[in-house]
Write the structure tokens for this entry.
Amino acid sequence: MAQLSIRKDSCDLDFLSLGALVHRLDPGIIPFRKAKSFDIHVSGGEYNVAANLCDCFGLKTGVATAMVNYGIGVMVQARVREMGVKPFYRHFEHDGVRGPNIATVYSDRGLGVRPPVVFYNRANEAGGMLKPGDFDWKSIFASGVRWFHSGGIFAALSETTSELIVEGMLAAKAAGAITSFDLNYRAKL
């Protein structure tokens, strides 16, 4: 069995993820069809790993992702800062009507025998517009990154996101980082 060789030198980041951010609307145990209010959570399959490693274990983490310059983007950026995750953004301008957008995930928690319900609005999502060349990997990895991670949710957004993952993985390997990929299958994507 192969052993992982984790960098022992000084690194700016213990962990860097590549993926899309979403804002999730959560009415709690109330079904959406009856909801009158909801909480807003910032998440994303790949981002959640970075946020939880930072919050639970105090690791230095980052996320490479799309950001949209509009009110929802400002709110999402604030939540990323609150979690202590270092952002590497590729900015997009919102046109005031069609986007591009930060995806919306609607999920209630279910109650008793009623299971949770999850549905998405990923139309014109900025994360799906990311492509090779959008991030300066050489600069990002120059300060040291121990572990680079992405996953199947992000890969499923478009043809270019899977190409970007390959680009990021190759740059990570060249910089001596461990790489990981979570299949994290979502039938709806």
Remarks:
- The beta strands are 15-18, 22-26, 39-43, 61-69, 86-93, 103-107, 118-121, 147-151, 178-182.
- The CA atoms of residues 42 and 78 lie 10 Å apart.
